[in-house]
């Protein structure tokens, strides 16, 4: 059974940093993992993803150069380092695990954590 538990969210001022973690259990080594976010009144959107052993990473244009996704397989943990945060980054951030064949684009696939709130004040 797949279980994903996010942590690390909080309130931060614009320009600050946060590091999100996702503790994963039951996730197949063949799965790809990613972070998505959902702001109030908006659809869930892709933030960043990592495939294989971590050599391949993908980012939404809005976070490129500011966010870094990584994974530590020994601890079955996924991370999202968020720097230079902006108020528009405010959202609930979700960890996701899915089959590689599903890709990252469609938020409708895979397993989800409960989410962690990130609030960036101006």
Note down, in words, how this protein is organized:
This protein is mainly beta. The protein has no helices and 11 strands. Strands 2, 4, 5, 6, 9, 10 and 11 form a 7-stranded mixed sheet that branches. The mean pLDDT is 94.
Topology (SSEs and partners):
Blueprint: E1 3-7, E2 10-13, E3 18-25, E4 31-38, E5 45-51, E6 56-59, E7 67-72, E8 77-82, E9 91-99, E10 111-112, E11 116-121
Parallel strand pairs: 2-11
Antiparallel strand pairs: 1-3, 3-8, 4-5, 4-9, 5-6, 7-8, 9-10, 9-11
Strand content: over 45%
Helix content: under 10%
Q: What's the main sheet like?
A: 7 strands, mixed
State the shape. Answer: globular
**What class do helices, strands and sheet pairing give?**
mainly beta
List keywords for this structure.
122 residues; mainly beta; four-stranded antiparallel sheet; 53% strand
Offer a concise description of the structure.
The chain has strands spanning 3-7, 10-13, 18-25, 31-38, 45-51, 56-59, 67-72, 77-82, 91-99, 111-112, 116-121. It has 122 residues and is an all-beta fold.
């Amino acid at each position: 059974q797949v279980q994903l538990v996010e942590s690390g969210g909080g309130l931060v001022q614009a320009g600050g940093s946060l590091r999100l973690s996702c503790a994963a259990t039951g996730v197949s080594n063949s799965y790809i993992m990613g972070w998505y976010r959902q702001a109030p009144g908006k659809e869930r959107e892709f933030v960043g993803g990592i495939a294989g052993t971590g050599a391949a990473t993908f980012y939404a244009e809005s976070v490129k150069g500011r966010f870094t996704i990584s994974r530590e397989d020994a601890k079955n943990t996924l991370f999202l380092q968020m720097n230079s945060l902006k108020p528009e980054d405010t959202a609930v951030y979700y960890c996701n695990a899915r089959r590689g064949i599903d890709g990252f684009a469609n938020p409708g696939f895979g397993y989800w954590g409960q989410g962690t709130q990130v609030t960036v004040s101006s």
